[in-house]
Specification:
Diverse_substr_monoxygenases; globular; 15 helices; about 35% helix
Amino acid sequence: MTKQISFNAFEMNCIAHQSPGLWRHPKDRSTEYKALEYWTDLAKILEKGCFDGVFIADVLGIYDVYHHSAEHALKGAVQVPVNDPLQIVPAMAAVTQHLGFGLTTSISFEHPYPFARRISTLDHLTRGRLGWNIVTSYLDSGSKNLGQKGQVNHDNRYDIADEYLEVLYKLWEGSWQNDAVLRDKVNGIFADPAKVHAIAHEGKYFSVPGIHLCEPSPQRTPVLYQAGASPRGQKFASQNAECVFIAAPSKIAAKKVVQSIRQKLKEEGRDPYSVKIYTLLSIVTAETDHEAQQKFKEYQSYGSYDGALTLLSGWSGVDFSQYRPTDQVEYIKTNAIQSLLDAYVNADPERVWTIEEIAHWNSLGGNGPVLVGGAETVADHLQAWIEETDIDGFNLAYILAHQTFIDVVDFIVPELQKRGVYKTEYATGTLREKLFGQGPYLSEQHKGASYRQLNRATYAQAI
């Protein structure tokens, strides 16, 4: 019997996100992204469908690798304009009770001390439904606008991330003891100073001497997501992540990545199945297979060739404008997302891709496959992906906002529930409790948990 299937909604505070050109479709709502109602409507749709959460991507930069220009990104609204992802989370949390929120922010662009406070605040406001997608960023444009000459070397960014997480674990897990907050109105003592500790961190990249500014949030550390699929990214994920997102064009490619991730978890002394792995995928569905195919053909007519190559060039760091449409895709090592081209070139020996083919592939739903069909057909494919790749669920990218998710909730979720492979209600508790059925905090086997046990003598006592 197929294991339980989980869904996340893949979103971004921008227009069209993973389907460049589809914002022109008359039923697409993504140009409404500036309105709170757009996000609260989405949250209600997803909670109705028992989605684990909404995973909000982000970039702090512009896709200007294609033609060495931002022209196509601006013309086609290719992830620009893009608004801050944090601001929409409280609004969505206010209209839901269970939906989780996976927030993307980069360790490259914000110091861990103020970031720790922002995340704790959101975990409080969502009552423990927050996750953090840890990224190191890949766009040179973002680095340059923050006064840097360009991106730090790919693997070195993960070295910085290692220390960044160390600082956060000290702040979130070690600074405030569980019984530090007294709220004693009679004696006028809100917190016991002896149980709040400065972390005294002095490292290669960061110096953080003081205490965490927030009292412990429901989860302390948010659920940790990571999407790095390069060897260095997988090592980082195997040490820190609780959920991993991958993007692969085929089951063969996905299976290879999943096997590598599970093995690295084992090498780090973690249960290889203690981490949930979601793969990127999109769904086009309707009452019948024929109607779904017609809908898919209609969507394809709105897809943007230049928009897709703008995304691909930014993701990979390779300017695809220099190649002919019939040229074959080859692996080129860059300082961007190193695993992207590898998934096309090395992971599936049975497939040779041309530039034109990957452009059309990525014009709908980004760098993942699109399943097309009625509910039974799509459900069969979803179960096959689970069984053949060993993933735990799907990070669903929309093609039309919000119609794609409405269709999934109306057609696919009931079919999966009928088959007994999709939850019919949420578990209680925080996001971590809903996902893993354990407590609200990092498990004792996670490296972050060790910072709770630090010798208090190593901390300078807070005044």
